[in-house]
Amino acid sequence: MNIRDLTIEELSDLMKDLSEQSYRSNQLFDWLHNKMVLSFDEISNVSKDLKDRIRDKLDIGFPTIYKEYISKIDDTKKYLILLNDGNIIESVLMKYKYGYSLCISSQVGCNMGCKFCASTIGGLKRNLEVHEMLAQVYLISRHNDIKISHIVVMGSGEPLNNFENLVKFLDIINCDKGQNISERNITVSTCGIIDKIKKLADLDRSITLALSLHAPSDEIRKDIMPVANKYSLNDTIDAMSYYFEKTNRRITFEYSLIENVNDGADNANKLVKLFKDRFKNKHIDFNVNLIPVNVVKENNYKRPNIDRVNTFKEILEINNVAVTLRRELGKDISGSCGQLRASVK
Ligand code: SAH
């Protein structure tokens, strides 16, 4: 285990085990998660003897930034992060009016097999450890000398398939003795693992949950997302309703528009009907986020022209469905949704 995988309570237990005074755990947590030290040498008020005893019990290594790409179009920055076992993951830093938002990965690769997404092409290598999720935030904050205010868990990987580590990551990043990033500023996106959506709902956190919907029918969804063979669209949307009912947090449906696959006016109308049917007699606060599909060279999917995108959007609007169009950021550095990979190209 890595020292940064420990919550403040676990760090306190460790200090007890080492017969140290309890204030040491707060001190260490501050160095690791507030000051975000990248190496043990940066810690100045802890004795070499204690550092050595910690080293005997735990791994203290940390990932490093391997490469930085800066978009010339919109200042988006993409980072390749080198993990201690040689694997590489990607994270993307975006600047908005309200602050800095970081898109982080939750797994090395992905095995969900969505046909339009680059992250799944090489399959799943492994889950990320808690400190490897934290490292993306810490390394990039330090490198840019900024405070990251928002996190989207939308990089490579299916976060709900790395459930325990995801929740521990949320605990540490949210802790007021560390980065203190509000759960309200964190969005987790899932392709729709129903039992895990319910499990997350039952934890009653304040994070925003986004579902990668991408289709108004099981038939189309099965064509592009293998997960649809396991879970029906109705059950998946009902699980999202359950999330709203438990947490009272507005839910998001992401819909990547792919030319001649799911972007026709008929599909927009079907989508409206689907929401009407599923949310009948319920008040569910939700919005739809349209994402014209980003180019991935291994597949032939095309993004629709702007007229088709607008028509789709207008049909939702006329029917009182809250809808936003996601701006494409970092296009020239392959930093957009679905373009992140587990390897260096
Ligand atoms: N596994 C999670 C999170 C990663 S993907 C999930 O499926 O939600 C983040 C978002 O980008 C998802 O909505 C995903 O469907 C979308 N996406 C994947 N490939 C894309 C592409 N080529 N263009 C646009 N969006 C894409």
What does this structure look like?
With 345 residues, this protein is of the alpha/beta class. The protein has two domains: 3-57, DNA polymerase, domain 1, CATH 1.10.150.530; 64-333, Aldolase class I (TIM Barrel), CATH 3.20.20. The protein is 34% helix and 19% strand. It is built from ten helices and twelve strands. The strands form two sheets. Strands 1-2-3-4-7-8-9-10-11-12 form a ten-stranded mixed sheet. The protein has a two-stranded antiparallel ribbon with strand order 5-6. The longest helix has 15 residues, at 130-144. The chain is globular and about 70 Å long. The structure holds S-adenosyl-L-homocysteine (SAH). Residues 112, 114, 116-117, 154, 158, 189-191, 212, 254, 256, 291, 293-294, 296, 337-338 line the site of S-adenosyl-L-homocysteine (SAH). S-adenosyl-L-homocysteine binds next to strand 8 and strand 10.
